[in-house]
Write a sequence for this structure.
């Protein structure tokens, strides 16, 4: 949350010289998965934008990204966005 130009996108994504929070977390996640000898750990990603209190699914194809989405806090699952796109990923590069 913050006004335009306050550095939100830079903090989250970074730039060519410095990674932001999201790339660092993803790298850390996949690095820790190297120690999973069972191979059962799977990763799915979702990517949303909240702008003017409107939630947009940034991974959806076509007009589906413009559908109205709601955010809920589930007592056990945490933050949930029903209907959001979930894409399986197997590496940092994906």
């Amino acid at each position: 949350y913050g006004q335009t130009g306050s550095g939100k996108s830079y903090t989250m994504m970074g730039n060519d010289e410095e990674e932001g929070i999201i790339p660092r977390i993803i790298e850390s996640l996949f690095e820790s998965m190297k120690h999973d000898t069972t191979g059962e750990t799977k990763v799915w990603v979702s990517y949303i934008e909240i702008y003017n209190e409107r939630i947009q699914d940034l991974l959806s194809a076509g007009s589906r990204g413009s559908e109205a989405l709601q955010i809920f806090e589930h007592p056990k699952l945490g933050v949930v966005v029903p209907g959001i796109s979930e894409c399986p990923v197997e590496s940092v590069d994906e």
